[in-house]
Specification:
With about 1050 residues, this protein is mainly α. It folds into 6 domains: about 90 residues, Arf Nucleotide-binding Site Opener, domain 2, CATH 1.10.1000.11; about 190 residues, no CATH class; about 120 residues; about 140 residues; about 100 residues; about 240 residues, no CATH class. Helices cover about 70% and strands about 0% of the residues. It is found in: Cytoplasm. One of its GO terms (molecular function) is guanyl-nucleotide exchange factor activity. Keywords: Cytoplasm, Guanine-nucleotide releasing factor. One of its GO terms (cellular component) is cytoplasm.
């Protein structure tokens, strides 16, 4: 390799090694920055310390030169300034080697001969000077002093004075004289003038002379090319010679030269008969060209053929034309033109960029014709790309910046043939470039493959898009081992294809994507880490294409498969350094691996239809459950922020039906899954996420969706039952406060005051805690016999059809609040005593009453499985306050017959008026169970006084209320409640029983007047017998005289 390539390889290796050894640094975005900066330091050293450079680079110029090298951003000015100052003070140079030479001993004779030789030399030189001076004086007749040019730079001002008259002289000579010798001298003069202008960087003068050559070539002139003579052909040859000899200095003059070469190629084709059909206007082209003169204007006017095209060509003119351009098709000219392109490898770094830029400009002019675009220059662009691909990376990057932009435009050309040629050329170049491989932390491949991404994004032609996909697939198949930063472009192309509506394109792209993820990643995962996020995002886009559900499901499976790579190769992710250098090594697995997977799954959930988003949701929580043990606490916080996006109101569908479906399915599914994950990883999560989970449960309960509201309370129950034994007092405080908040916000106070005519005022006055703008109708059953059923009528009933929508909306929200109240009562009961315990206890009381004993043979095995023993008295008192408030509200509603009638007429129609009997009885039953359990708990002896006061008050009010109830069905609903109250009271000690018996005695006497069921009468009988024993109204002489029902307490 040459010296430049050696330096390039050293700089590449240095930059890669520097980034590898300085992983903590944040100054350089990638190894590319270090590579370019190293070159700029070499250039600065040469500029400041080379004696051949007169105009030294300033600090401002150096800073300007280094703009945008840090991933399109600037390095700090202070840093570049310090580099400049350091290099200015001390140049970078190789250590000098000391040569130890042994001076030879000079003899007197040798010294004498040396002195003699010098003396003779000086004498001879002096004599020559005198002779020359005399000769010059003899022939000189000018009296003005003559200044001898002593430096090369003296040429510049002299040429600046004479270039205009010289150009005029040469131009007139070429234009007016057909003598071959005169033309030859004029062309040689122009060639030398171009040379001088190039050497001294005189752009104006250079451009003027080159334009003159181009004009006299007749290739770009307005005059007809049929007038071409030998001098014009010699002009073309001179132009080619200038391109060969002065290519490094031509700058913008390349435009004229390359334009002439392009027109020369067209003239050669016409001269050899390849395109004579255009001139004769035969066939379809004749119609377009003769009628509209389109071809003459577009393609041939530059050659001066417009008059021939429009007027027709006779055989004599055609023969003359072919003879004129015949020499331009000679082997020597063709070879010379080719040498311009093959010799582009000898152009320096700046010249090659100018050459490529103007070649691309000429190519765009060639392709501008809508009917007959030419691809001569485009082909040459491909060729010079091959020739110059081995240049140092710094130069090649600048070249490809121009060529890549050109391919972006050509690949989107409306002419499909042109676009196909461009894409195929890109493919060939890319395959060649990828063979070279890429060092770590560089981005050359990403820049090189970017045109594929641009074409895929901008070109909507199915043919071209299909071709792009196939090209990328071929690259992946043959060059996967060499691809590094190029993976980003590959996944970007497939990302564009993923949202396509063409099944063939989607299928082809997905096959390759699946092959990459399932096979290539297994062997080349370290090289693809930087693009891992892009791969997952690409799969997410495939999953979100609703037109291809099978592909969507398979894409989700592959995302799940990606989790396997992250789990099995965490060290590779930790050790990889790139743009995330600021990320702590311990978090790189999360940032680079898990977060993209889980985030894209959340996007699938938020964007896709039901079956796909359900699958995405399932996979998301499968990943959490399978790999959550490896997650750090702060990772979980980021993760749950993603998960909670599922419930974000701003992201929910706007259509009411879709929103309802979303809440009933996706939100519902997610809620249970969250609680499962929270339970599985409780130790890691409760400190950082319990409050957020409770807040989310409250959000669900407050929505206008019955199913979601029920699920919210069910999940709260499951969460507490599963983890309650691990709760600290502080967590129990938070849990009880959560239930308290739900209770307070869901008590439907407006039920007591609502009137159809003044609904809005009533709602405003009572501060309804429902955002009516977010609420919709929801179904609720009317029966109240089991949990999960409402106490009010169904709002979808036909009776609602005539009601105003606002009324329906309000009443539906109130119904859901009633459901939540009932669900929450049951939740508290299940949490404290464990699910189904209370039902078994009620069954036991009924059997005991039937058998006339206090304890039936039914034993509740789950007695100690509830959370009762883990809760303090204060926590239980909080829950009791909620239950009592709920009971009071439902009791007030059930007693307000007038209001119930208003609601019934407004739409709550059914077999009977609306009621809250289930809420009234279940809230009181739960309250009594908790109080009686605490009342006999030795561990809560300190609270017995308060418990007794609460118990006496609650029971007395309950019995007093029962007496006032007029409805027989209402009293029947209280039967199990009275059984519970009396049975629990009968089981307490005699001392405690006295306080209760004295308080309840008058109420129980009143109750006896009602038509009670046999079981309740049996319990009342036991109660009065117990009173007789405790107060010694009668004293049995022998134990056998005590009724069996009271033998256990006697």
């Amino acid at each position: 390799p040459g010296e430049a390539q050696k330096i390039d390889r050293l700089m590449e290796k240095f930059a890669a090694r520097y980034i590898e050894c300085n992983q903590g640094q944040t100054l350089f975005a990638s190894a590319d920055t270090a590579y370019v900066l190293a070159y700029s330091i070499i250039m600065l050293t040469t500029d400041l310390h080379s004696p051949q450079v007169k105009n030294k680079m300033t600090k401002e110029q150096y800073i300007k030169m280094n703009r945008g090298i840090n991933d399109s951003k600037d390095l700090p000015e202070e840093y570049l300034s310090s580099i400049y100052d350091e290099i200015e003070g001390k140049k970078i140079a190789m250590k000098e080697t000391k040569e130890h030479t042994i001076a030879t001993k000079s003899t007197k004779q040798s010294v004498a001969s040396e002195k003699q030789r010098r003396l003779l030399y000086n004498v001879e030189m002096e004599q020559m000077a005198k002779t020359a001076k005399a000769l010059m004086e003899a022939v000189s007749h000018a009296k003005a002093p003559f200044t001898s040019a002593t430096h090369l730079d003296h040429v510049r001002p002299m040429f600046k004075l004479v270039w205009t008259p010289l150009l005029a002289a040469y131009s007139i000579g070429l234009q007016n004289c057909d003598d071959t010798e005169v033309a030859s001298l004029c062309l040689e003069g122009i060639r030398c003038a171009v040379r001088i202008a190039c050497i001294f960087g005189m752009q104006l003068e250079r451009d003027a002379y080159v334009q003159a050559l181009a004009r006299f070539s007749l290739l770009t002139a307005s005059s007809s090319i049929t007038e071409m003579k030998q001098k014009n052909i010699d002009t073309i040859k001179t132009l080619i010679t200038v391109a060969h000899t002065d290519g490094n200095y031509l700058g913008n003059s390349w435009h004229e030269i390359l334009k002439c070469i392009s027109q020369l190629e067209l003239a050669q084709l016409i001269g050899t008969g390849v395109k004579t059909r255009y001139l004769s206007g035969s066939g379809r082209e004749r119609e377009g060209s003769l009628k509209g003169h389109s071809l003459a204007g577009e393609e041939f006017m530059g050659l001066g053929l417009g008059n021939l095209v429009s007027g027709g060509v006779d055989k004599r003119q055609m023969a003359s034309f072919q003879e004129s351009v015949g020499e331009t098709s000679s082997q020597s000219v063709v070879v010379a033109v080719d040498r311009i392109f093959t010799g582009s490898t000898r152009l320096d770094g700046n010249a090659i960029v100018d050459f490529v830029r103007w070649l691309c400009a000429v190519s765009m002019d060639e392709l501008a014709s809508p009917h007959h675009p030419r691809m001569f220059s485009l082909q040459k662009i491909v060729e010079i790309s091959y020739y110059n691909m081995n240049r140092i990376r710094l130069q090649w990057s600048r070249i490809w910046h121009v060529i890549g932009d050109h391919f972006n435009k050509v690949g989107c050309n409306p002419n499909e043939d042109v676009a196909i040629f461009a894409v195929d050329s890109l493919r060939q170049l890319s395959m060649k470039f990828l063979e070279k491989g890429e060092l770590a932390n560089f981005r050359f491949q990403k820049d090189f493959l970017r045109p594929f991404e641009h074409i895929m994004k901008k070109n909507r032609s199915p043919t071209i898009r299909d071709m792009v996909i196939r090209c990328i697939a071929q690259m992946v198949s043959s060059q996967a081992a060499n691809i590094r930063s190029g993976w980003k472009n590959i996944f970007a192309v497939f990302h564009q294809a993923a949202s396509d509506h063409d099944g063939n394109i989607v299928e082809l792209a997905f096959q390759t994507t699946g092959h990459i993820v399932s096979t290539i990643f297994q062997h080349h995962f370290p090289a693809a880490i930087d693009s891992f996020q892009d791969a997952v995002k690409c799969l997410s886009e495939f999953a979100c294409n609703a037109a291809f559900p099978d592909t969507s499901m398979e894409a989700i499976r592959l995302i799940r498969f990606c989790g396997k790579y992250v789990s099995e190769r965490p060290r590779v992710l930790q050790e990889y350094t790139s743009d995330d250098m600021n990320v702590a090594p311990g978090d790189r697995v999360w940032v680079r691996g898990w977060f993209p997977i889980l985030f894209e799954l959340s996007c699938i959930i938020n964007r896709c239809k039901l079956d796909v988003r359900t699958r995405g949701l399932t996979v998301m929580f499968e990943i959490m459950k399978s790999y959550g043990h490896t997650f750090a606490k702060h990772w979980w916080q980021d993760l749950f922020r993603i998960v909670f996006r599922i419930f974000d109101n701003m992201k929910l569908p706007e259509q009411q039906s879709e929103k309802s479906e979303w809440m009933t399915t996706t939100c519902n599914h997610a809620l249970y899954a969250i609680c499962d994950v929270f339970t599985q990883f409780y130790e890691a999560l409760h400190e950082v996420l319990l409050s957020d989970v409770f807040a989310q449960l409250q959000w669900c309960v407050k929505q206008d969706n019955e199913q979601l509201a029920r699920s919210g309370t069910n999940c709260l129950e499951n969460l507490v039952i599963s983890n309650g034994e691990k709760f600290s007092p502080a967590v129990w405080d938070e849990t009880c406060n959560c239930m308290l908040d739900i209770f307070k916000t869901t008590i439907p106070h407006v039920l007591l005051t609502w009137r159809p005519a003044g609904m809005e005022e009533e709602v405003s006055d009572r501060h309804l805690d429902v955002d009516l703008d977010r609420q919709s109708l929801s179904s609720i059953d009317r029966n109240a016999s089991e949990r999960g059923q409402s106490q009010l009528s169904n709002p979808t009933d036909d009776s609602w059809k005539g009601a105003p929508y606002a009324h329906q909306k309000l009443l539906a929200s109130l119904l859901i609040k009633c459901v939540v109240q009932l669900e929450l009562i049951q939740t508290i009961d299940n949490i404290v005593f464990y699910p189904a315990t209370s039902k078994k206890e009620d069954a036991e009381h009924m059997v005991a009453a039937q058998q006339d004993t206090l304890d039936a043979e039914i034993h509740i095995e789950t007695e100690n499985q509830g959370m009762y023993k883990f809760m303090s008295s204060q926590h239980l008192f909080k829950l009791l306050d909620c239950l009592q408030e709920s009971h009071s509200f439902s009791k007030a509603f059930n007693s307000n017959y007038e209001q119930r009638t208003v609601l019934w007429r407004a739409g709550f129609k059914g077999k009977s008026k609306p009621n809250l009997l289930k809420q009234e009885t279940s809230s009181l039953a739960c309250c009594l169970r908790i109080l009686f359990r605490m009342y006999v708990d030795e561990n809560r002896r300190d609270s017995w006084d308060e418990i007794q006061q609460r118990l006496l008050r609650v029971c007395s009010e309950a019995l007093a209320y029962f007496i006032t109830v007029n409805s027989e069905s209402h009293r029947e609903a209280w039967t199990s409640l009275l059984l519970l109250l009396l049975t629990k009271t009968l089981k307490i000690s005699d001392e405690k029983f006295k306080a209760h018996a004295s308080m309840y005695y008058p109420y129980l006497c009143e109750i006896m007047q009602f038509d009670l069921i046999p079981e309740l009468r049996a319990v009342l009988r036991k109660f009065f017998l117990r009173i007789g024993l405790v107060y010694k109204i009668w004293i049995p002489e022998e134990p056998s005289q005590v009724p069996a029902a009271l033998s256990s307490t006697w």
